[in-house]
Design goal:
Elements: E1 3-9, H1 13-29, E2 34-40, H2 47-58, E3 69-73, H3 80-90, E4 95-98, H4 110-118, E5 124-128, H5 136-154, E6 166-169, H6 170-173, H7 186-192, E7 198-202, H8 218-236, H9 240-271, H10 283-310
Parallel strand pairs: 1-2, 1-4, 2-3, 5-7
Antiparallel strand pairs: 4-6, 5-6
């Protein structure tokens, strides 16, 4: 199979038929073998009924594309990352395309995305909605700031890392784990897994025709926290002592030196019969003791982290590109 198209959705019943017909037309025109996997993320409208109708329409013995429509339905709303994770597990195509269900992503971009993966050798190609039709103040400006931060932290120079329209080699989606709200950073996850040939393509952005936007400003706060989590896991995920042990040791050392300095100042004052503050009421003494305690706790956190990693079944999970045995 050439292409798997994964469409995560939440309450998008009005657009699904039009989207599928558009995808199917593009696939037929380019003679691609394909499947469309709709992942219903706990919709409360009749999205699942529409998916069932689409499936039944083409599900007959005479149809050559009787498996062109597949559906996954969650019992409740888990989020886009969960939808993509399940879609990636089910995908069978050599190239996997993801797009949103709101018709703001154009299926006409699929042939060129497919070509970039198969002919130019990209592992992942991310869309760039260079000209957007969103609200400039509430979506465009925050999105630019978000992407600038993501580029700086990840080292991946994409203009729109969170664009829903992306293409992947099948091997990529089978070797990354999308969880929490990490769908925003799939290129970073792919890079961490060793898939470093990441490209970008300017894609068409269309105005929303049906339904309402699921956008919320809280995604920028969550996105920042998720980015820091990914950076930390990539840097210290298998070596927590390298972070906690280093920071804890430094804090303990600084606190210890401060205690020695405070004690030395008190001894000097007594030796020269100069009135000095009691050590027990000196605020610097208490700050120094606190730093020593926190340093010990951080060091122990790193030690416990190493014990957990040592007993983890995935401690020696490495992605092997090829073998000669």
């Amino acid at each position: 199979m050439n292409i798997s198209v994964i469409v995560p959705l939440f309450n998008e019943a009005e657009s699904l038929v039009e989207l599928y017909d558009w995808i199917a037309r593009v696939m037929r025109d380019n003679k691609f073998s394909y499947e469309v996997i709709f992942v219903d993320d706990g919709s409360t409208d009749n999205s699942w009924q529409v998916i069932q109708e689409l499936k039944s329409k083409i599900d007959n013995p005479k149809s050559k594309n009787d498996d062109a429509v597949r559906g996954i339905r969650f019992r409740r709303n888990y989020g886009k990352s969960a939808a993509l994770y399940c879609g990636f597990k089910a995908a069978q195509g050599d190239v996997v395309i993801t797009m949103d269900a709101d018709l703001q992503d154009s299926p006409d971009e699929i042939p060129e995305l497919y070509r970039m993966i198969t002919e130019e050798g990209y592992d992942l190609v991310s869309g760039w909605k260079k000209k957007r039709y969103d609200n400039a103040l509430t979506k465009n400006l925050p999105s630019k700031l978000f992407n600038a931060t993501a580029r700086w932290v990840t080292g991946i120079h994409l203009h729109d890392m969170n664009c829903g329209l992306k293409a992947y080699r099948n091997e990529v989606v089978k070797n990354i784990e999308v969880f929490s709200e990490m769908h925003r950073y799939i290129p970073f996850l792919a890079k961490n897994a060793g898939f470093t040939k990441i490209g970008e393509k300017v894609v068409q952005h269309r105005k929303r025709e049906h339904g309402v936007s699921k956008f919320g400003l809280n995604r920028f706060v969550n996105g920042y926290l998720d980015l820091m989590t990914l950076w930390f896991l990539n840097k210290f995920g298998k070596q927590p002592m390298h972070f906690f042990g280093l920071v804890g040791s430094m804090m303990f050392l600084i606190g210890f030196i401060a205690v020695v300095v405070v004690g030395g100042m008190k001894w000097y004052a007594l030796a020269h019969q100069v009135q000095a503050m009691l050590v027990g009421v000196n605020p610097y003494f208490h700050i120094a003791i606190l730093m020593m305690i926190l340093g010990c706790m951080l060091f122990l956190a790193g030690f416990l982290g190493e014990l957990i990693i040592r007993n983890s079944p995935s401690r020696n999970d490495y992605l092997i590109r090829e073998q000669l045995l």
